[in-house]
Amino acid sequence: MSSESVEEYLRAIYEFNEKGNLAKNTDLAKRLDVAPSSVTQMIQKLAGEGLVVYEPYRGAMLTGKGDAIARKVVRKHRLLKRFLHNFLGLGSNKAHDEADRLEHGLSNEAAAALCKALDRPVISPDEEDQIPPCTLDVEDCDQCEEVRKETDGSKPITELSNLKLGETGVVAFIRGGTTACQRLLDMGLTQGTAVTVVNAAPFRGPMEVAVRGSNLALGRGLASHVFVEVEDTRPLGERFHPHGPYHGRKRKRGKS
Amino acid sequence: MDKRIDIALAGNANVGKSVVFNQLTGLHQHVGNWPGKTVERAEGTLSFGGYIINVIDLPGIYSLSTFSIEELVSREYIAIDRPDVIVNVVDACVLERNLFFTLQLLELEPRMVIDLNQVDLAGSKGIQVDSEKLSKLLGVPVVPTVATKNIGLHELMEKVVEVAEGELGPSVEIRYGQEVEKRIKELAEAVSGVDTPYPRRWIAIKLLEGDDEVEKMIYAVQPSIKDNVDKLKVEIEEIHGHDASSVIADERYAVAHRITDKASTYLIPEKRLSDQLHHATSHPVVGYVFMAAVILTVFYGIFTFGDFTSGIMGGWFEALNTAYEAVFGSGPLPAFIWDGLIEGIVAGVTIALPYIVPFYVALSVLEDSGYLARIAFLMDSAMHKIGLHGKGFIPLMLGFGCNVPACLGCRIMETDRERLLCAFVASLVPCAARSVVIMGLVAEYVGFEWAIALYVIDFALIFTLGRVAFKVVPGEPMGLIMEMPPYRWPTLRVTASKTWFKLRDFVYTAFPIIVIGNLLIQLADLVGLLDLVQGLLSPVTVLWLGLPMATGVILIFGILRKELTLILLASLMGTSNFALVLNPVQMFVFAFVVMVYIPCIATIAVLVKEFGYKKASIITLAQIGLAISLGGIIFHTLKFLGFP
């Protein structure tokens, strides 16, 4: 299965999840216009790779790892839509369809540049949907260009609050106010520290994380300040390449 | 005369510091406040081998920044008061994070001994820490202990005396990475001209970390150094790609990690019951059921015990009163002495002992076992609705027993803003005394469902006012971050001593106020002032609230203790069958007003103590206004709906 269709699925699940719903197979089939049987197959595959958690009869939910990949596609999609609609003046349906196609080809670098050119939008056009914030290690947007020189933004990074039970992430950076930041640092959530979610209270309550040999209870709000890198276990060919999906493809094919 | 040594216990929360403190000092302790701060200061003494050792238990903290008042108090004490020896209590189970704090303590260059505590628990977790190796790596003596079983504390004190007598400062300098270290040295050199009680190296580190207090202190004397600091900070940022404060935290943790790794061996942990218990008690479903059961059991136990003992003690005082009247007669003067002076003490005793003592015992057990942390964890999202995090639920829970410990308990919140919000909400929680009125009047004569309705109204009020206060009081809400300590058996000695000292604190705070307040009101009654007040209040009580005239006086007495309103109602109306003198609507309105109209005088005293006169009066006035306006609305609505 191509990385494109994986991304399509992840984005669709993301869109259900952000509204607070699980993504049901039938709903996914309708949204993606595919047969329910292939949805079942794909969900199994995604679950096997640790990208989603599937609850029988209830639906699928992105794991932290799934979110780290999905948010990049969603971000690109919504940035593109905003560009096509607000800047180029395309009708919103047209913009949506175009964005569907273009999102897979847009490199991380181009997405960051688009974000800057559009003056850092946070909401996609004619919808309530939030554009997921970037996962570059920046305090504010002024540092964006500088940071982009050093990293291509391809690392699978997400907020600690998105990690599901049993998932582990490695602290990449903390974004947010100095007091919150200092407290998290004092408790040992420094860069490079592995954090595992061991328990989560219901109703979006706090999560309990194992860090440095002890357990901490962490409110969701604080946890969303912490950006963690999750391990991307997908086979290399299916990963999104930072310079676009076709980058380096040929050479790999030639080898095999 | 014995020689005196001052020592301070410093360490993270949940490392067993208070157990060490209690084992060392027993009943020779004094709990007060740090001068001018609402931070608890526990101090005690012990005599050991010809020395009088004075122990200060510093608050449990994770860092020496200025994030909280506790941290500021601790570091000022260590650097400025310079106790002879710092005893750093560290938890062998979580050595790495504990050492992060140890490293910061060492930067203040005190004479120090490390108490490697809970080595038994660490052993059962499969962690073995080599104390000699640790001592070598840190350059200070390390003594392994199990404070709960009083193991190793004697050796600890021997080491303390040795260090106090010797000239043993920290012998190893903990170094950061090369780039950071170079800049610390440069800055330490640059601040050498400034006269402060703090070590220069520490000042340099804190300036790089951007510590407000240190910046203020140094820039006031040597403003020129700011450019230098900013330049060095930018350099560190350029090298590491992160701001200097997080680079320093990173490196400090890296050092802590390295030392922990070198000093510990890891074996396969035993399967422990406490892990399963933890799993069950913080489970998204079972956890709540368990919590409800625990809270209900605790309160049911306290109320049953309190009711029973309070009755017995009431009988004793009645007998005493009869004997008193037999001896002194029942003339106006003896009666005044009894009502004015002794009644106040009786009131205090019959409430404090039967309800407050078991309450403090239960609280101490819940806290020491680690269960309170689970409650905070489970209640976090509910508490966020009123702008507080999970820890704020604990004072609210205390409030059901008595608002006084509830308002004192708000100290567990991190910032002044959260403490104030929490205390405001906690003072609205129906305490034991209010429950007595609700149950004795409304549940008894109107119906149980009406009593429940009162509670529901109160919870709705708490929720609404909590939200309003959260929006009105300026400042950022704080998120929950707390350690989840493993379950432990509480120790009898610690529980007993905690209860004793809290009780003493309660008696000191509340008793004088209750006695004096009682005396003043009796005096006012004697000179006929109360009738005047009752007349003045009658437009409110009679016309607006629809209550009998006499309730004016009753409500004034109720400020002393709310359950007094019920007793007075009986004596002023001349019957304890309230159905004869009040109709159901009046009972409901009366109970509502009693519930809300003012925090009792002891609670007001605590509010003043914790937040000052201004904020205490605002809270008090707000509640008076609220009770009167809502009480009237309830009365007129019920009347309009055709209730008798």
Short note summarizing the structure:
Chain A has helices at 3-18, 25-32, 36-48, 64-87, 92-102, 108-117, 144-150, 178-186, 220-223, 249-255, and strands at residues 52-55, 59-62, 157-159, 168-174, 194-200, 207-211, 214-218, 226-229. Chain A has 256 residues and is α+β, with helices and mostly antiparallel strands.
Cα radius of gyration of chain B in angstroms: 29 Å
Topology pattern of chain A, helix = H, strand = E: HHHEEHHHHEEHEEEHEH
Gyration radius of chain A (Cα, Å) is: 18 Å
β-strand percent of chain A reads: 15-25%
Alpha-carbon distance between the two ends of chain B: 78 Å
Broad shape of chain A: globular
Secondary structure class of chain B reads alpha/beta
**Biggest sheet of chain A: strands side by side, in what order?**
3-8-4-5-6-7
- Which spans of chain A have pLDDT < 50 for at least 5 consecutive residues? 239-256
Q: Name the helicity range of chain B.
A: 55-70%
Overall helicity of chain A: 40-55%
Q: What is the straight-line distance between the termini of chain A? A: 17 Å
Q: How would you describe the oligomerization state of the chains in this entry?
A: heterodimer
Q: If interface size is counted as residues with C-beta under 8 Å from the partner's C-beta, which chains form the largest one?
A: A-B, 41 and 43 residues
Describe the structure.
The complex is a heterodimer of chains A (256) and B (644). Chain A has 256 residues and is an alpha+beta fold. Chain A is built from ten helices and eight strands. Chain A has helices at residues 3-18, 25-32, 36-48, 64-87, 92-102, 108-117, 144-150, 178-186, 220-223, 249-255; strands at 52-55, 59-62, 157-159, 168-174, 194-200, 207-211, 214-218, 226-229. In chain A, helix 4 (64-87) packs across helix 5 and helix 4 packs across helix 6 (108-117). Chain B has 644 residues and is an alpha/beta fold. Chain B contains 26 helices and ten strands. In chain B, the strands form two sheets. A seven-stranded mixed beta sheet of chain B has the order 2-3-4-1-5-6-8, with helices on both faces. In chain B, strand 5, helix 3 (95-107) and strand 6 (112-117) form a beta-alpha-beta unit. In chain B, helix 7 packs across helix 8 (200-209), helix 20 (448-472) runs parallel beside helix 25 and helix 21 (492-526) packs across helix 26 (601-640). At the A-B interface, helix 8, strand 7 and helix 9 of A face helix 3, helix 11, helix 15 and strand 10 of B. Strand 7 (214-218) of chain A pairs antiparallel with strand 10 of chain B, so a sheet runs across the interface.
